[in-house]
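Write out this protein's structure.
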Amino acid sequence: MSNTISWSYDPTVTITSFALQKSTDKGVTFAALATVAYDPSGANFSVATRKFFYVDAAGAAGDVYRVTSTGAFGVSGPAVAVAPPSEPDKCTIIGYALDGLGRARTDMAVTVTVYGTSGERWVKNPVGTVAHNPQALGMTFTQETVFTTDQGIWQVDLVQRALVRITIEELGYEKSFEVPGKTGPVNIRDVADYRGASHGGLYAPAANLVQS
């Protein structure tokens, strides 16, 4: 198997690179894994999520990763992520946005909110990086933003049967639904609204969470 580690950054500070370390003994000892240059146009940057990422082809369940940023401020404290013990089934949800003349709307923000059990939370380091609290247990409340491509298309991979709300503020669009129990891709227009979603909050049962 492989593990994909992703992290956000603080664009208001000068960052030159990110250093990744890996532990195969549950965080007791760490060894250098890779150095990723700060390059938003490089192969290790996702335009869709606006995060840097690294694929550890030799990654295994339970591996622990640390990411630090280096820049004019020196070296940040580490952000920590844990590879979960199993991979849940996911469904790819897609959508597209056009203007009144049928032209693709590009770089439009699409906010994805997943409702889950209380527990782990994303925590921010003093400088730059963000990572998940090192306990990969259960599915937590998560909010992510993706952006439309040059063709006006957006997509996101979600845990099947999770309860989710998609919001596109620029269009005044909001939809709450249960993720279908299939791999997809499934167009958002073909997903039924969650019954009673307009009458209050949404809560999801516990499920495995994948660190991505």
